[in-house]
Design a protein that fits this description.
Helices cover 24% and strands 50% of the residues. The chain is built from two helices and six strands, in the order H-E-E-H-E-E-E-E. A hairpin with a 2-residue loop joins strand 4 and strand 5 (82-89). It holds the Pfam family DUF2845.
Length: 100
């Protein structure tokens, strides 16, 4: 028969599972940004980044003999004493990485 402390531990673990974010999401205040969000949505949720740099290019779509080239851009944010790198291809968020 489970004890009161076991029940509390199970309730706490269940609560953590409900409020935890997926690895590819980031909380900015009360908003959450996720992979595939638009640059506009990220900037609305998190504000302007500390750093914003074009770090490369990607050949995205081929139309006959034409190739669509998109920027790869990295935005750096500091949230709750941690630094995050947000990588965009074109206008879409592709990757969120904690860097510190």
């Amino acid at each position: 028969m489970p004890t009161a402390s076991t029940n509390r531990a199970l309730a706490f673990a269940g609560t953590l599972m409900l409020v935890s974010l997926p690895a590819h999401a980031l909380r900015c205040g009360t908003d959450i940004v996720d992979e595939d969000d638009l640059m506009f949505e990220v900037e609305q949720a998190c504000g302007p980044p500390l750093s914003r740099q074009v770090i490369g290019y990607v050949d995205s779509l081929v139309y006959g003999d034409r190739i669509r080239v998109m920027n790869i851009e990295e935005w750096i944010y500091k949230i709750n004493r941690n630094h995050y790198s947000l990588e965009f291809e074109g206008n879409r968020l592709q990757r969120i990485t904690r860097i510190r």
